[in-house]
Amino acid sequence: MNPRDSCVCMYLSSISGRLKDTLSLTHMAPPPGIAVTLLLLLALQSYGFLLSFASANVYIVYMGERKYGNPELVSESHHEILSYVFGSKEAARESILYTYKHGFSGFAAVLTPSQANHIADVPGVVRVIPHRFLDLHTTRSWNFLQVDSHFRNGVLSRCQSGVGSIIGVMDTGIWPESQSFRDEGMGDIPSRWRGICQEGERFNHSHCNRKIIGARWYIKGYEAEFGKIDTSDGFEFLSPRDASGHGTHTSSTAAGGFIENASFMGLASGLARGGAPSSWLAIYKVCWATGGCSSADILAAFDDAIFDGVDVLSASLGSPPPLASYVEDVVSIGSFHAVAKGISVVCSAGNSGPYSQTIINSAPWIFTVAASTIDRAFPTAISLGNNQTVVGQGLYTGMDVNKFYPLVYGQDIASVDADEDSAGSCELGTLNGTLANGKFVLCFQSLSQRSSTAAQRTVMSAGGAGLIFAQFPSKDVSLSSDSLPCVQIDFAIGTYILTYIGATRNPIVKLNPTKTLLEQQISPEVAFFSARGPNSVSPSVLKPDIAAPGVNILSSWSPAYSLLQHQPSPVIFKIESGTSMACPHISGIVALLKGIHPTWSPAAIKSALITTASLEDQYGQSIEAEGAPQKKADPFDYGGGHVNPNKAIAPGLIYDIETSDYIRFLCSMGYNNSAISAIAGASITCHKSTNVQVNLNLPSITIHELKERMTVSRTVTNVGPVNSIYIARVQTPAGVSVKVKPSALLFNSTAKRLEFKVVFRPLLKVAGRFSFGNLYWEDGFHVVRIPLTVRTVLDDFYAEA
């Protein structure tokens, strides 16, 4: 039975019992109609059931830090709250889905809105959060980052490939038979590990080993909303087993072992491995192939991961804007408690770029990762019937390589009831199946149809033989189907092909097999799809934090879908793009750095990577950002820059942050004292203080409204030579005066942490736009850089508005 239905039945049962007791006391046996009326009156009177039972939904009751050391006492307190609301312990047990009792306190339960409001007034409850669903957001990439054994003092060799670190992955599960997860050469499971290997459909204890040391799966929140998942078709598994491939891909990117001759249908062949191939993996399946990731399930995974003992949590998921507050967003909540216990939490930035303010996972304690390109390309030659050849990019392996196909323009074969412009971009259902059947279709990207994968599905459903998709220049090679060829071209080539179609009676086209080219395109660049800042929740917190490879990444894949389709060659490696792919790159690097610096906090490791990140491509030019038009990348595109793992080993200085600093930051966000006290697990009185957010000790300074002179403070910790002298150097943002006080920092055995101040003064007499610069601290060997992001505004401008 659906938990919501069970809850309602238990409640009605308890009401019915109370009605019988009342009638027995008066020795009355009322007619059925009166009994029904009394039953309804009692139901309406009791505990806020003023709305229909159908309005019951999943809510997360967040109660902050645990008040009891014993997790069972924490769980008992949750049941007491629900028993009070329902008036029945049985109904409370039926209602509750999860009790969060390890890393923090709270629970998820099926409630009506009135019950949720009632619980919100209970002392100790920080927030009652409506249930939400979040979205899922390599043979070359690690060599491109120079994370390989050829660098004797590099991060891979220094940390022995990640030995000693446990990476937790919150995703769609794992395909344990993949070669990436063999345990040859892995050390024994650490004694500090407290996780489990949870069994389920086609997954038992034998699928865990010395590589996959733990696996859990979470579905109560998902099924409370959508009902039971039907797994009879084999497209999903009620277990940690991955049906979609996404989780297998991210897990192997972060920590997969070495695999020779890996490729996707012969493309991108080479040695595949993860960033930390000797790290252990812990799998938390919170997302499902049928779509979406339940916020209640995600918070349960955070709670377990904290208890289990992971060192790094990798989560390639999130909700699109508008963003919830930091005490209502489950990723922010779970990651806050994880970071407070020394666990680095790495999240994807989202795929809604290149538009401004689309960044997600924006809390300052989260390590938020943008996606960038690598120096590998997949050129695909297109031969036309006029003996001319143009070149796009695709993943075409040569089926019917000598065959020409009829070529049509989507607008010319629009279905009867479709808009011609929509057909021109191949929006779903716009093509005439009779006219498209057996033909290649030319489509143009539009504002309403940005995705070549969506156009590919449209052409496939219309019976087309292939797709040629004209779009803004991008290095991302999309593939939604292995069976329908798709080649992406820019608008100039698309216009040329369209002219050819219009000038020819029977236009035809042939694709040539795709080739794999290395080191023949400028990289890195910020990917077109990668979400951009500024931060829409806390504008003084720069997001994203950093960029990492997330375009055309080859990694292990779940063969479940291809096995379901009875394909002769199951897909076990696949090329995928997204900030989902960038996130595990940073997760793997963080695991390596934790092995070198085991006492460093998550903020310290994040600082080391941000302050050593690169602003240049392999030719020494400024990194560009894909978009319309392409432009020089700025901190809203890539945060501190593009990750440079080997430099992060010895950053010289770090900007560290303690949990108490995050608490003061939350106070500045306007949350009340009781909420902050519950989160912190101690009595907190928030004091009003100016510039608390901008003074959070981040490795960046962002001032979203500079109206007059402003002083910002930062503190740096020396992790280099004991006796060091650092000199400040500033690249000043346009329209702003910047001074650093003091301009020199002298470290010794007693002075390991020093504070400095940066004074900003606007030079413009008009409301300006964001301008960017950098602050460097240099000692002759280390270059410690943080981005400066400033926008000048005028009081008069807002007064007039």
Automatic annotation (TrEMBL):
It holds the Pfam family fn3_6. Residues 164-618 form the Peptidase S8/S53 domain. It is found in: Secreted, Extracellular space, Apoplast. GO terms for biological process: proteolysis; response to symbiotic bacterium; response to symbiotic fungus. The chain crosses the membrane at residues 34-62. The active site is at D171, H246, S580. It comes from the Eukaryota. GO terms for molecular function: serine-type endopeptidase activity; tripeptidyl-peptidase activity. Residues 695-790 form the Subtilisin-like protease fibronectin type-III domain. Residues 58-137 form the Inhibitor I9 domain. PROSITE patterns: SUBTILASE (PS51892), SUBTILASE_SER (PS00138). GO terms for cellular component: apoplast. Keywords: Apoplast, Hydrolase, Membrane, Protease, Secreted, Serine protease, Signal, Transmembrane, Transmembrane helix. It is an enzyme of class 3 (hydrolase). InterPro entries: Peptidase_S8/S53_dom, Peptidase_S8/S53_dom_sf, Peptidase_S8_Ser-AS, Peptidase_S8_subtilisin-rel, Peptidases_S8_3, S8pro/Inhibitor_I9, S8pro/Inhibitor_I9_sf, SBT. Belongs to the peptidase S8 family. Required for arbuscular mycorrhiza (AM) development during AM symbiosis with AM fungi (e.g. Glomeromycota intraradices). This is Putative tripeptidyl-peptidase II. It comes from Rosa chinensis (China rose).
